[in-house]
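FAQ: What does the model actually see?

It sees only this:
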Amino acid sequence: MSEVFEPDGPHDHRIAAVAAADGPLRALNLAGVLTAADVQVATRVGGLAVLADGRGAEDDLALLALALCVRSVRSGSVCLDLATVASSTEAPDGWSWPAHDAWCAAIDGSALAATGVLHRDGPLVHLDRYLREERQVADDLRARGSSRRPASTAGCSSTGWRGSSPRRATRSSGRRPATR
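And it is asked to produce this:
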């Protein structure tokens, strides 16, 4: 996960104004683990998922997973590994990471999972968009690996030119290629 930031004060731009006063999003935001952007996205998308699913308020643990997924994507990963969060991210004083089974149950029973925003595969939690992109890349690579290479024509390189580059090369007819 990415590094923790040191808040400059209560008005630091990385501190979210919308987080619940005692929820895990607030605690991790004030500790510098989550930025305001992580909290804002989790809060807004969680609210939209609840509206779409018709449930009551979203579970704090599911919102925490969503905020950490956003943080993971911002840091260059495509998923959140629940098994390594506690060991790779320091929890603020007086707060501990949720138990793995309780966290998984909260995610699985959430409006975020029901509406397809979050997908859990064992300890890995994906945002829908990035999971679909990962699957598309995997499908493309499988298709590319199973396709046959075209047969090369005798006397031609794979680019259709003899020599190292089209500018210096000549076609088999001996004429220089036309350039624009």
